[in-house]
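W.,

You were right to be curious about this one. When I first looked at the sequence I had no strong expectations either way, so I just let the prediction run and decided to look at it fresh. Below is the sequence, 228 residues in total, followed by the output.
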Amino acid sequence: MPHCVIVAVDGPAGSGKSSVCRGTAAALGLRYLDTGAMYRAMTCAVIDAGIDTSDADAVAAFAGTTAITSGTDPLAPTIAVNGVDVAGPIRSESVTGAVSPVSAVPAVRERLVALQRDHVALAREAGVGIVVEGRDIGTVVLPDADLKVYLTADPAVRAARRAAETGTRAVAATEAALKARDAYDSSRTASPLTQADDAVVVDTTEMTLQQVIDHVCDLVNERREQHV
């Protein structure tokens, strides 16, 4: 394996993907891509344009004219729509509630998957490698990734983490929302959330963030050593 290792990380919401992937990429000197932020950015743009997020045809047409730009520095990742920073707006409740149906539109996934693969190609060309997180990275976006990791955790733990992240005390409601989104994303026709057959499963329920980062770093280094 060359130095430019390609790491695909999938898992349900609240499993710790973003924090783990950023930490791993920073520790190993790799680039980082949050594909979930890309889908949120598209959803944010759809909402701002006044388009019904359940109108798949309208969303598909709009997606083809919208530029999503992602920064890949793990220490300062960025996300923009048509040149406008949307890092804050994409975390709003309205976007969170609509991101699943927008993400399920095949034309949206086709456009964003192409952008995601472009980022990976650029990382390879630069010889630095990249950690890519999402829900269909190991199965659809990067089926030939050097390492595939599937992060998971107990639903109650995932809900508590997400509630802490968003500053809400409604943990039970958060857990119900996460379960509903997981069910939706796992059953959608276009690129459903699923574990790749060759992914290494990492259950983060009883682990600290640093322990998970260290473990994933070890997995990456082991895979590198196997290909020296």
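Here's what jumped out at me. Residues 106-126 form the longest helix (21 residues). And, maybe more interesting for your project: The longest strand covers residues 147-152.

Coffee later to discuss?

I.
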